[in-house]
Design a protein that fits this description.
Blueprint lengths: L4 H16 L3 H12 L1 H23 L2 H7 L1 H27 L16 H13 L2 H14 L6 H28 L1 H4 L2 H23 L4
Length: about 210
């Protein structure tokens, strides 16, 4: 069974609502975009890649197995919470430094585009809530007898929607870089982002399957 244009557009609309919801993805895109447009867009690309991975995983049924397995879900949840907490601590450490020491090894100033991409990717891959989201969403648009191409198409749509939204965020933040790149503002962004990421990590680990 093939997908109709209406189904694809409806799926894209639901994905847009999901992408607009605040979360760790938004936080890290904003933080890296202050360092430059390229870093923000690299992070956005990593997020989109993570969305694609979860969409394909859900379409193949693997995400459903994860969501149904208490042990597997807990492991991914713990890994995700630890990763968010680690990113949060790094952001807070960066915020605690003075203006002349922001470019520390491994800090934001030295963050490579590959590292920015990796952070965006791992924020999604280590998020079991994404598994639950796609497990609930995909069957609404993808029938059991659907061709593999239909699953790939929806996964591409999901990734594209996420990419467009976070590209927009990255470019908007980068456009305000002259204001946001001032040391006091950068430290404030780091501090707020760090607290938010740690809070999201705690919230994630408290989530029940």
């Amino acid at each position: 069974m093939t997908l109709t244009v209406g189904q694809v557009l409806g799926f894209a609309a639901v994905m847009a609502v999901g992408a607009l919801s605040p979360g760790p993805d938004f936080a890290i895109v904003v933080r890296h975009s202050v360092s430059g447009r390229a870093h923000g867009m690299a992070t956005a690309t990593g997020i989109a890649a993570g969305v694609f991975v979860w969409a394909v995983t859900a379409a193949t049924g693997l995400a459903a197995l994860l969501a149904a397995s208490t042990v597997a879900f807990t492991v991914v949840k713990a890994a995700g919470a630890a990763y968010l907490a680690w990113l949060g601590v790094r952001a807070i450490v960066a915020a605690s430094r003075d203006a002349g020491s922001l470019r520390v090894a491994g800090g934001r100033g030295d963050l490579s585009l590959l590292a920015a991409f990796r952070q965006g990717l791992l924020c999604n891959v280590f998020n079991p809530k994404a598994a639950v989201f796609f497990v609930a969403l995909m069957p609404q648009f993808l029938h059991a007898d659907a061709a593999p191409a239909a699953a790939v198409l929806l996964a591409l749509v999901a990734a594209t929607v996420a990419l467009l939204w976070f590209f927009t965020v990255a470019n908007l933040v980068a456009a305000m870089r002259r204001l946001l790149d001032r040391p006091p503002v950068r430290r404030a962004i780091d501090a707020v982002t760090g607290v938010a990421l740690i809070g999201l990590g705690i919230r994630l680990v408290a989530t029940r399957n």
